[in-house]
Each structure stands twice: as C-alpha cells, then as structure tokens.
Amino acid sequence: MTKKRASRKISHALSGEICNGEEPPIQPDAQPGAQMDSIREMGSPAIPEVASNIHCLSIVGQIEGHLLLPSQNKTTKYEHVIPQLVAVEQNRDTEGLVVLLNTVGGDVEAGLAIAEMISGVSKPTVSVVLGGGHSIGIPIAVAADRSFITDTATMTVHPIRLSGLVLGVPQTYEYLDKMQDRVVRFVVNHSGIADKEYRRLMFRTGELARDIGTVLVGRDAVEERLIDAVGNLSTAMQYVQDCIDASDDEPEEVL
Fold first, then answer.
1. Which residue in 1, 73, 132, 147 is a FRET match for 217, CA 20 to 30 A apart?
2. What is the pLDDT of residues 219-233, one digit of tens each?
C-alpha cells in the first residue's frame, strides 16, 4: 500500500466514513464530561427539563440586602430575585408564579422590596413555606395571592433588630418604630391577621429563650390567620393552574 492510499484510509476513518466494509461505531449523544459536571453541580446524572407556564422562585437561606454576607452563609440576593419578577410580569408565556420559602429572614428593606414586587405581579401568585419563613420572610409569604404552609414548617414573629453601630439617641428608637410599622402594615394588609394580634405575637415574652416573639408551627400560622391554608408543592401548583384555567374561560370584552 502506498503512502497516499494509507493516508487517505486513515483520513476516512477519522471522518467517520465506512472503512473496509465496516461502519464506524455509534458515538453516544451525551459526553461523559457533561454528565460528570451535572453530578458535581446538582448531585444527579440528569436534571429533568420541563417547559412550564408557571415560574418557580426559591427564596432560601438569609436574604441579602445592601451589604455582602460572609461567604459561608447561604443567601438569596435581592438583585437576583427582582429581575426574575420583572421577567414573570413581562413574559407572555409565563402565566403564574410559585414562591418556595425556606428562609431565616435578613435585610428588612430587601425583604420588603421582594414582597412588594410579588404583590405587584398581575398574574396568579402563590407561596409555600416549606422549612421556615421567619422574620422578614413573613411579608414575602403573605404577599402572594394565596399562601400555604406545610405541617412541619415554622414561622418566627419577632420585632426587627439592628446590627452594628447603634447610636443611643431617641431618634434611633423612632427610626426602629417606623421600620416596624412598615412591616406590620404590609403583613396586616396582605393577610387576615389584625394589627393588634400581630403585635401581640411579636412582643410575647417567655416563649423564646433569648428573644421575644412567637414561633408558629404549621397549622398555628393558619389559626392565627397569618397564612391562608396548610398545603405543599402540589397544592400550590394546582391552585395556580386553576386560576390560569379560570382566567382562560372568562369571555373577552369586545369594545
């Protein structure tokens, strides 16, 4: 065999053409490197991809506001959440929103900003408190059209606190009082609890060892009319889908 024929045969083999009457082996679609990356990042060899008309927003860990938290903290950055909510409102293919909550609270103004954004979405919205919806996570939970909580989830109602340098002047107390009123007003306006009852839960003594406040577990939050009902993920998804179906059935107005 000449060198020219040998090189042509090798090039045919490398290009996947038939050589010596045999077909080249079938190459797998997924590369091993991609599967290893999926296992490394997500802990699963394959992540199911579903085209859905309902957007799922997860708020976990501590809500990070204007200051960066330490790297070991699990955080939800409000500058990541707000663009998602804007996209939900603008995208015509997205017809509903489900908010999954497992947060210890965090920055007051960032939490209120997220809550106001959720309440301003014109499409059906629902929230589910899974592990915990503490502190400023409460306004976020009640901001949706319908709120659910699992039997094992907890919500801690307590006054807001300041960290860092605090000036011991009357203006500091007035500032705290105004911030507290903002939180209480939002929760009362978006849930069934009364202002007096919410403040009673907030300033209760004897239940928390190192703080004042109240821990509501599952159905306790429903009985206090803070959360609408006990439910889970499937309950929330079904509620949003029912709202979408009901809006589709409504007759269009003709001018």
1. 73
2. 999 999 999 999 999
Considering only CA atoms, which of 195, 183, 198 is closest in space to residue 112? Answer: 183
The CA-CA-CA angle for residues 84, 87, 90, to 5°, reads: 155
- Look at residues 144, 78, 73 and name the one whose alpha carbon lies nearest to residue 110: 78
Report how far apart, in Å, the C-alpha atoms of 40 and of each of 33, 43, 216 are. 10, 6, 37
> Which two three-digit tokens encode residue 29?
């679609």
- For the stretch 116-169, pLDDT in tens is 999 999 999 999 999 999 999 999 999 999 999 999 999 999 998 877 777 888
For helices 170-189 and 108-119, what crossing angle results, to 10°? 20
The residues that are catalytic are: 135, 158
Identity of the residue numbered 166: V
Report the DSSP beta bridge partners of residue 102.
Answer: 60
Q: Beta strand pairing status for 154-157 and 214-217?
A: antiparallel
Distances (CA, A) of 242 to 21, 54, 187, 205, 234: 60, 12, 25, 42, 12
Contacts of 189 (CB under 8 A, 6+ apart): none
Cα separation, 111 vs 78, in Å, equals: 8
